[in-house]
Design goal:
Elements: H1 2-55, H2 59-82, H3 89-107
Helix pairs in contact: 1-2
Amino acid sequence: MSLIASRVALIQLEARQSAKSGASRAIRMAAAAFCVLFAWMLLLGCGIAALSACTGWAWHWVGLATAVLHLLLAWILIISCKAAPPAFPATRAEFQKDREWIENFQKKPKSKN
């Protein structure tokens, strides 16, 4: 029993360490995503202002065209995500085989010895 208890304690310790590591990684990834989003917003603002100044077009029309392009790109990406194949096809096939085997096993009459 002490061997099992020590293994359980080890698993709990490693699970806590893994959770802390995962939370730390998630926080860093969220901060990085925020920085990228902020940089993208600044690039868009500066790009709209620069394009407006170079072409002589009103900035609000350039901004509207940029927004429409972003919405079009988002729509294309969403449509492409819907056409994705189902996840884990090999695992699903194995689970289906397991279900069939269990059903066949339960249907077979047990031999009396």
